[in-house]
Amino acid sequence: MSELTLFLIKAGYLAILWIFVLSAISVIRSDMFGARVPEAARTGGGRAPKAPRQPKPGKRRSVPTHALVTEGSNVGERAELGPTPILIGRGSDAAIRLDDDYVSTRHARIAASGDQWFVEDLGSTNGTYVGTVRISQPTTIGLGTQVRVGKTIIELRK
Amino acid sequence: MAQPSTIMGFVHRRRRGAELFLLILALAVGIGAYAAVGLGVDGEVPADLFGYGAWLAALLVAAHLVIRFAAPYADPVLLPVVAALNGLGLAVIHRIDLAKEAAGSPHAFAQQQLIWMTVGVALFVITLLAVRDHRVLQRFTYTSGLAAIVLLLLPLLPGIGRTIYGARIWIHVGPFSFQPGEVAKVLLVIAIAGYLVPHRDALALAGRRVLFVDLPRGRDLGPILVMWLISLGILVFQRDLGSSLLFFGLFLIMLYVATERPGWLVVGALLFVGGAFLAYFLFGHVRERFDIWLHPFDFYESGESFQPIEARFGLGWGGLVGRGFGNGDPNRVPFAESDFIISSIGEELGLTAVMAVLMMYGLIVERALRTAVICRDAFGKLVATGLGSAIALQVFVVVGGVTGLIPLTGLTTPFLSYGGSSLIANWVIIALLLRISDQARRPAPTISDDTTAISDDATQIVKIGERR
């Protein structure tokens, strides 16, 4: 095999190697130059093209103002929503203090991010449920979403 | 794509298509290297190229499909980079096999390595399927710490332990040999991360301040310190310098990341300098390595520095673009297929390829740290950081040793070197990183029930959100 062929094979292989490395870098270039956030996500809504989204803000002019216990031993207990997260649990430092044997001392918390509210389990024994789903990470909740801790159900209300 | 907005207002794309594209390129890197070796050494395309390529492709496509199924949001770059490194490693090991065959001592390291790679990919798949949520691993904090120590102790048992080339780090059971330290590395990362997550506040805040450094209370640091010192002690006793260095650096990095106290780096550097001095005066083999590093040619005649010097000759001879597969003489370096594989690459493919390889390692580490940055839970962050730094440290120690930047300590080059235990452990590391990145990039589930206010289109989105 001639020198030239061998050189071409070598050069070709080095080219393949670097094409691979550079393609891999180009796949993750958003790490360096930032990702394009879709218009919908930036405004805080779903993805939704303009037209069907338009009526939404009008219809659900629904900014929750407080969290209310709707079921369980402490029905009626409430906490105003504010910039600080609301702690739910049996402990004395909880904003919503529950006398529920199935609730942990520091069970869950409700906090705001932007114009969204989310609930986060704080490593409770019996878990926090949104609807019927046990949550494992911060989950967004809306007005009237039933958050169940122990035997208690908490909702966001206007 | 329907994407419910998350708390951060930004949703990562799945990018499985990009992964497949990169995987095809990675296959070109692996199979191309194999073909180039055949062309360069024998002057013809190897006869089993099709079978070899099909096997490699089947393994990687299987891994890709499992990711699609089990971790759809996982990082798209990790698997292809690992596949390219593994493929390149296989080809270079095959090249050294051919050289050994020509020299009259045939070996089938490449074939063996392909079997190990198959086992590695199988474990990768099992890890991805079994660990559906990395936070489960936090339950096994102390179990994995204990398991790591037991694994490290195994080579010291008289029946199964073997001393090979001065280091007692191997176990032999029947026809199989294994280096348990490689697996212990993964377990120790899990143990340290699992311990530090609940204790990091106490470690960072409670304690006394001594010389600009906040020393934590003994009861906070004690358990993990004991665990770490035991494993470090075992490694020093086994004369495994590379792994001791790796474990030392790993612990420091994780402690620094968990507590956010730069003082730990100062303490660590001082401890390292002190320990190095002590080792230099206490252990003959450490002193020898050090002297060889400083004055390599003084030991060339006696043969003690034959290996590193030949490796450097090879790197120098390779130059910028290398000799080409088949035109170099990588077989001159003892253990060119394991510890010194980077010098074989430098000799036959040159600095250009060595830089590409280092870039690939850089990519793996960058993806691991990136995963740590976007991960939502502290345990995942620490495990990703730990696994990423383990690979970074290992590459630094071994490539630095081969190129003469630091004294030579034996460690395998991840994914490239011949060695089953290392390959398997590293595939599991990648599986864990993919699992964490899948969790981190997955959009948070949204559950909303004011359906009346939402149009049909939006309802569709909610359904997808629930199913995830």
Task: Describe what you observe in this structure.
The complex is a heterodimer of chains A (158) and B (468). Helices cover 27% and strands 28% of the residues of chain A. In chain A, strands 2-1-11-10-7-8 form a 6-stranded antiparallel sheet, with no helix packed on it. Chain A is an alpha+beta fold and 158 residues long. Chain A has helices spanning 3-27, 29-33, 39-42, 50-53, 55-59, and strands at 66-71, 78-80, 86-89, 96-97, 108-113, 116-121, 128-130, 133-134, 139-141, 147-149, 152-157. In chain A, a hairpin with a 2-residue loop joins strand 7 (128-130) and strand 8 (133-134). Chain A folds into 2 domains: 1-31; 66-157, Sandwich (Tumour Suppressor Smad4). Chain B has 468 residues and is mainly α. Chain B has a domain at 1-130 and 314-372 and 407-444. In chain B, 67% of the residues lie in helices and 4% in strands. Chain B has 15 helices and 5 strands. Chain B has a 3-stranded antiparallel sheet, with no helix packed on it. In chain B, strands 4-5 form a two-stranded antiparallel ribbon. In chain B, helix 5 packs across helix 6 and helix 8 (241-259) packs antiparallel against helix 13. The longest helix of chain B has 34 residues, at 341-374. Chain B is globular and about 70 Å long. The model of chain B is unreliable at 1-8 and 449-468 (pLDDT under 50). Chains A and B meet through helix 1, helix 3, helix 5 and strand 9 of A and helix 1, helix 3, helix 12 and helix 15 of B.
Beta-strand residue percentage of chain A? 25-35%
**What class would the helix/strand composition of chain A place it in?**
alpha+beta
Mean pLDDT of chain B: 84
- Kindly report how far apart the N and C termini of chain A lie: 82 Å
Distance between the termini of chain B: 14 Å
| SSE pattern of chain A, N- to C-terminal | HHHHHEEEEEEEEEEE
Largest interface pair:
A-B, 57 and 66 residues
Class from helix and strand fractions of chain B: mainly alpha
Using the coordinates above, name the CATH class of the largest domain in chain A.
Answer: Mainly Beta
- Give the overall shape of chain B, derived from the CA principal axes: globular
Enzyme class (chain B): transferase
Membrane topology (chain B): Multi-pass membrane protein
Subcellular location (chain B): Membrane
Transmembrane segments (chain B): 20-37, 49-70, 77-94, 114-131, 143-165, 177-197, 218-235, 241-257, 264-283, 340-361, 382-409, 415-434
